[in-house]
Each structure stands twice: as C-alpha cells, then as structure tokens.
TrEMBL record:
InterPro entries linked to this entry: DjlA_DnaK_co-chaperone, DnaJ_domain, DnaJ_domain_CS, J_dom_sf
Descriptive protein name: DnaJ domain-containing protein
Alphabetized SUPFAM superfamilies for the sequence: Chaperone J-domain
Domain J: 6-81
PANTHER family linked: CO-CHAPERONE PROTEIN DJLA
Spans annotated as Disordered: 35-56
Basic and acidic residues composition-biased segments: 37-56
Length: 81
C-alpha cells in the first residue's frame, strides 16, 4: 500500500515539516512497519511474500527519512525530486 514514492507522503508530513516532525513521523512508522514486528502484528508466522513486503515498506520509510532528515539532501530532493 506504500507504492507512493514521494518521501513526504511516505512519512505523512507536509513539505514544510520541521526536522522534529519528520523524525517523529519516521519513528512512529518505523516501529509500526518494522519487519521484526510482523509476526506480532499478524498474530501468526508471516509468509515469505509478507516478509518481503514489510522489508520493502521499511526500506522506503528509511530512505525517505534519510533524505528528509539531512538538510542538504532534502534541499536537493525538493529541487530535483
């Protein structure tokens, strides 16, 4: 469900979000989508497909945070996408 590649949309923050807002959004999502929590979330053993999906989502969340939490990278992202 996170096929959206816009980093702001992935983290659920606005384009003028502060660094603190970005960090808080990331932490919330990282906990919710962490692959290690999948079994607990599902209440059963996850399938390989579910594991892979969770890892992909977590990777997207982490990438978005890595760019948006770095002022230089964020500036380039805002400028060039």
């Amino acid at each position: 469900f996170m096929s959206e590649t816009n980093y702001y949309q992935i983290l659920g923050v606005s384009k003028n979000a502060s660094k603190a807002e970005i960090k808080a959004a990331y932490q919330k999502l990282a906990i919710k989508h962490h692959p290690d929590r999948l079994r607990q979330k599902l209440g059963r053993e996850p399938t390989e497909k579910e594991k892979k999906q969770a890892e992909e989502e977590f990777k997207k969340i982490s990438q978005a945070y890595e760019v948006l939490s770095n002022p230089e990278k964020r500036q380039n992202y805002d400028r060039y996408g």
